[in-house]
Amino acid sequence: MNSQFSIPSLPETPQCSPNQLIQLANNLPDVTISIPSVDKVLEAVEQGKADQVSKLDWVYCIYAKAQWDQQNIDRCRKTSAAIWKVAISNLWLQHQLLWRLALYYGDQQEQVLAQSLAESFDLCANSDLVNHLLPVQIIRALCSKQAGRELAKIACEQRINRTELLNTIRDDLPVWIPFFSKFIEDITPYFTTIRSPNQQQVRWLLNCLDEMSESQQIKAVNYLLTNVLNDI
User: Fold this and answer.
1) Cα gap 62→112, rounded to integer Å
2) What angle do CA 179, 108, 85 make, to 5 degrees?
3) What is the pTM for the complete model shown?
4) Is 106 exposed, middle or buried (0-12, 13-18, 19+ CB in 10 A)?
5) What is the rounded average pLDDT of the residues 181-201?
């Protein structure tokens, strides 16, 4: 059985001359591309127009600030302090800086944040508007010489173990940095510094011991036996 099918007709391709294409291009609206620059961002901050800075410009500014600082040594600290001042009320910028600051103290340093921004963090941390926030408290702990014990102290105050702490801050800070995996070893050393621990603190310690490996538990119990008074 033979079937015959009709071949559909295709529309003709419009022909455009070079002159027509040039005329079409000339009629297109002008598009201005704004190239990010640290100077532009800092100028907006100094003029009180930080709310007009785009997220893309902020990202570039944070990324390029270390190199900018090398060329503007006399202004690096002052401008970084100004950026942190904006971050106190700009939650998105605050998140970007805190995340990179955690990486900075996680041994990546200049790759993620300018030294001047790291050293200016206290301006934000000392603000009554943000010093109660858990991510800010944790970054402050990472800045200290005994980061592990300070993290253990925060976990104790929050009555949560290491896993619960990491789950709480997972969206705010990079939980994979070494500090967060190692501070479980500082839980019992911190606990021994508590004078007359109450029942909640003892339950917190037991909760932390429950999530430790067998070798970690043995080490922790030995430390407790040799460093805690018998009547505790």
Assistant:
1) 8
2) 90
3) 0.80
4) middle
5) 92
